[in-house]
């Protein structure tokens, strides 16, 4: 079991953050953040605060501004920023992240059965460490079917609004949920 999987087994909520203010509000029981919508100038400050709070940092590279979305951009992030891993919809960035020893989380939008099949092809090609399924509310309905076809730990994100949503997702054997909803960062059933 990977280090991230062990952490998520203890605390299955990933706080999706957009600002330093968001990071300041992350409760102690959360161990992992996903940085969204930032740029190369703001990232260092966000990482410094996250490190001070002893948080594992994932960066959504598809939403990151100021750096090329290619292997050199990933190499720079791996060697110069202190992030622990990336989240991306792009298989080639997942492969680059793995090459540069970053945790690689493949984000998949599963909106219908053809998207489901395409997602499986992407996963088989990129071989991410983790898979994030969006929208998260669809996860309980497809979890068994998905787990029969892939081996990676599964995270659910997007459109998660209630603690019951988290309960249903975790009961369907997701390792974690990711959410920017601060009310859910204090989820207590773990």
Describe this structure in words.
By secondary structure, the chain is an alpha/beta fold. 42% of the residues lie in helices and 20% in strands. It has one domain (3-186): TIM Barrel (Alpha-Beta Barrel), CATH 3.20.20.
Number of helices: 8
Distance between the termini: 19 Å
- Rg over alpha carbons: 15 Å
Spans with pLDDT under 50 lasting ≥5 residues? none
Fill in the CATH topology: TIM Barrel
In CATH's first tier, which class applies? Alpha Beta
Portion of residues in beta strands equals 15-25%
SSE string: HEHEHEHEHEHEHEHE
Relevant CATH superfamily = Aldolase class I
Q: Strand sequence of the main sheet, in spatial order?
A: 1-2-3-4-5-6-7-8
Mean pLDDT: 96
GO biological process, one term: regulation of DNA-templated transcription
Protein name: Glycerol-3-phosphate responsive antiterminator, GlpP
InterPro entries: Aldolase_TIM (IPR013785), GlpP (IPR006699)
Short précis:
The chain has 190 residues and is an alpha/beta fold.
Descriptors for this entry?
alpha/beta, TIM Barrel, globular
How do the strands and helices of this protein lay out in sequence?
Elements lengths: L2 H8 L2 E5 L2 H5 L7 E4 L4 H13 L3 E5 L10 H10 L4 E4 L2 H9 L3 E7 L3 H14 L3 E5 L4 H11 L4 E4 L5 H9 L4 E4 L11
Parallel strand pairs: 1-2, 1-8, 2-3, 3-4, 4-5, 5-6, 6-7, 7-8
Helix pairs in contact: 4-5, 5-6
């Amino acid at each position: 079991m990977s280090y991230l999987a062990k952490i998520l087994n203890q605390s299955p909520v990933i706080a999706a953050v957009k600002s330093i203010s968001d990071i300041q509000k992350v409760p102690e029981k959360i161990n992992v953040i996903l940085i969204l919508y930032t740029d190369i100038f703001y990232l260092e400050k966000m990482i410094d605060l996250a490190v001070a709070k002893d948080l594992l940092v994932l960066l959504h590279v598809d939403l990151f501004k100021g750096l090329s979305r290619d292997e050199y951009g990933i190499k720079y992030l791996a060697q110069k920023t202190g992030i622990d891993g990336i989240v991306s919809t792009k298989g080639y960035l997942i492969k680059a992240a793995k090459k540069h020893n970053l945790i690689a989380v493949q984000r998949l939008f599963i909106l219908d059965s053809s998207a489901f099949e395409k997602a499986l092809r992407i996963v088989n090609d990129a071989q991410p460490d983790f898979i994030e399924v969006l929208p998260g509310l669809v996860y309980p309905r497809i979890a068994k079917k998905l787990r029969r076809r892939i081996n990676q730990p599964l995270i659910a994100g997007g459109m998660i609004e209630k603690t019951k949503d988290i309960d249903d997702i975790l009961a369907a054997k997701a390792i974690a949920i990711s959410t920017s909803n601060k009310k859910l960062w204090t989820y207590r059933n773990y």
